[in-house]
Amino acid sequence: MTTPNNSDNLSSEFPVPEVVIQRLPLYVRVLTQYSSAGEEVISSEQLGSRLQMTPAQIRKDLSYFGRFGKQGRGYDVAMLERQLREILGLDRTWNAAVVGMGRLGRAVVSYPGFAPSGFNISAAFDTSHDIVGKTISGLHVQSISQLTESVKELDIKIGIVTVPIDHAQEVIDAMVLAGIKSILNYAPLSPQVPEGVTMRGIDPVLSLQSMTYYLR
Amino acid sequence: MTTPNNSDNLSSEFPVPEVVIQRLPLYVRVLTQYSSAGEEVISSEQLGSRLQMTPAQIRKDLSYFGRFGKQGRGYDVAMLERQLREILGLDRTWNAAVVGMGRLGRAVVSYPGFAPSGFNISAAFDTSHDIVGKTISGLHVQSISQLTESVKELDIKIGIVTVPIDHAQEVIDAMVLAGIKSILNYAPLSPQVPEGVTMRGIDPVLSLQSMTYYLR
DNA sequence: TGTGCTTTGTATCACACTGTATAAATAATC
DNA sequence: GATTATTTATACAGTGTGATACAAAGCACA
Fold this sequence. Notes:
The structure is a homodimer.
Chain A: H1 18-36, E1 41-42, H2 44-51, H3 55-63, E2 69-70, E3 74-76, H4 77-88, E4 94-99, H5 103-109, E5 119-126, E6 135-136, E7 139-143, H6 147-153, E8 156-161, H7 165-177, E9 182-185, E10 198-201, H8 204-211
Parallel strand pairs in A: 4-5, 4-8, 5-7, 8-9, 9-10
Antiparallel strand pairs in A: 1-3, 2-3, 6-7
Chain A binds a DNA duplex through helix 3 and strand 2.
């Protein structure tokens, strides 16, 4: 009764708001920092000030998934981090495929930030005959026609789109057809995806374009 | 009376929700596509289906800034694009400074997507003595101590942070001190910034970490 | 063991955002 | 020119998200 380790108390009973899910990785990140700083306990107050949000917000977010804290004390850093990682599915590694091996794709596959976070780029694809067959950062570049096959063989769950804008939608369609349910899109467009497929866009220009509003 | 060209009808009277501002660049993007496809008129219905949102949402968003459409007809593509660009401050070019000239910084300054959108990277900085003084993609890399001076001289309004995580906060502080009000941050942390400074984060790992929740 | 202090978890409230519905305005057609 | 189609702008309602407030629970220390 005192150990609140039933991580899926409520999480599967009703849907957790998307915004909450997007905040959880932020909590994990701060917890990791705290942990490596040798702290054993953290309060919602401390978490909140670090992330510039109210303590109540954090407590409410966490309460969607269970009761992780101790009143009068706070949250056990290691325990909470472990719980959140499990909730997010970060207690394992995930395989990803990159499609588009131009300048951007090369930057992505050689970015050293993915692997330590448990994201493994295990296949690379392109359409151009000039690039297919080459080896880039240790990855043998395959034709996009091999996508479905590789997704199955290599247990790829995540697609990363780094093709030019005019091929992006068809690549995304191909990924969906291949059974990929999570897509990270670097192309500057708003793609159409069916229900059940999660998309995230990486779009620095879009970010800049909304900031200039506050500059005038 | 029939020409609703008073672009700041309401916009300055009360604050426009942040989410609305972030959607405006999406509208601009679709309008540009429509324009180059030769279309002269677009309805909120068409815009909405392209962006997977309801027509009413779009009409409401636009109504924060004025009345741009004609009932029974829709929106004049060229006119609406021009209006939205003006609202967002995209009817001019903006100068940006990149701090951090490692792998990521080099990728950013050589990314060909900024200039066509009116974002001009006009200065590059680093702390390392190995890099300061070099010329990368036509930019002479300066010491970070030159930041404030360059910001004034070159009319730099935007800062782009591409340093490793352990230097990111101090770089951001330096930018704020130099008078920069808009910061695009590529470092994987949630930085502390004072009121009045707008921050956007580019963080693919964070995006991946929230997608895996839906994969389990 | 009891008292005071801290912090959580949640009930309640307030507000912001989204979707529905409709009147007004325009265009098209006969 | 009258009638019908269309589409905007907006009033209204509903939903969802964030902040406030407080009771319950644990800790510390005498």
